[in-house]
Specification:
single chain, 270 residues, alpha+beta, Killer Toxin P4, Chain A, 2 domains, 10 strands, disordered C terminus
């Protein structure tokens, strides 16, 4: 028996474990979902057919910087869908997150006409109501780290200016990407990292207003907690005391989405 043949039986299980762990870690991180229970559809309905079509085509409508938008149907059978990837996520992870969110949301909300799912890297929403409007209903999603800062006043005094600075940068980002991330030194040389993003169809003023509304919730809900996020379909923010975003990612030059004859509704603000 060769040396290689003798080694393989020992290393093969370890190799499999490593591969399994790698695949597991690579999966998109599910955060939250919401199903609108007051509006349902049946299995053989036109709405179901339009929903299947919409979600099948949606991943091909990338604006070039992680925003997706597609609509099919007329009247009560119209299905509108949008998706937004986090601004620092590379295109492969963005598409992977979107595909996973589509499959998962169909399981979580099997017959609802309106649904939303949030992952760490992306957000997906579909509805028979118009989605490219501002403001949408303020159904906030809150998630905060339970740990409290030792110096609450000093922590908040550093956090708020950081979020205000990022808000201004994101709002001025243009019609394809409204995103900003950065960091600031807090009390005891603690580093605070922040990220904000708006849906790109919002105008600069709408993006600023949406984020200001969310950031104003910090003092009401986090009470000095060292990390957290607040998410609306229109905009979101997150802060932590560790670098949770890709600080080295460079935004690529967007390519125009492929032309399609099927109806696509886009309303982007400057």
């Amino acid at each position: 028996m060769s040396i290689l043949t003798g080694i393989l039986p020992f290393w093969f299980p370890l190799l499999c474990i490593c591969l399994i762990n790698t695949i597991t870690l690579a999966q998109p991180v599910f955060v939250y979902n919401r199903c609108e229970s007051t509006k349902n559809f049946t299995v053989n309905s036109t709405y179901r057919t339009n929903l299947d079509t919409t979600l099948a085509i949606l991943p091909t409508t990338n604006s070039g910087l992680g925003f997706f938008n597609f609509s099919v149907g007329e009247g009560n059978n119209t299905v509108n869908s949008i998706a937004l990837c986090r601004g620092d996520v590379d295109p492969d992870k963005c598409i992977g997150c979107l595909n996973d969110s589509i499959a998962n949301l169909r399981k979580l909300c099997p017959n609802q006409k309106e649904a939303l799912v949030l992952y760490d890297y992306c957000l997906l929403q579909y509805s028979n109501s118009t989605l490219l409007v501002y403001p949408q209903p303020k159904d906030y999603f809150f998630q905060f780290n339970p740990e409290i800062a030792k110096d609450i006043k000093g922590f908040n005094a550093a956090l708020r200016p950081l979020m205000d600075e990022l808000r201004g940068t994101a709002a001025a980002g243009g019609p394809l990407l409204k995103f900003a991330s950065g960091n600031r030194t807090g009390p005891d040389f603690l580093r605070i990292y922040g990220l904000v993003q708006c849906s790109p169809y919002l105008t600069e003023q709408q993006c600023s207003e949406c984020l200001e509304d969310e950031v104003s919730q910090i003092g009401l809900h986090d009470n000095g907690k060292i990390g957290g996020k607040i998410v609306l379909p229109d905009c979101n923010f997150r802060f932590e005391i560790y670098p949770f975003f890709n600080q080295n990612y460079h935004v690529p030059t967007p390519a125009p989405p492929p032309g399609m004859n099927t109806k696509i509704r886009v309303n982007v603000g400057v």
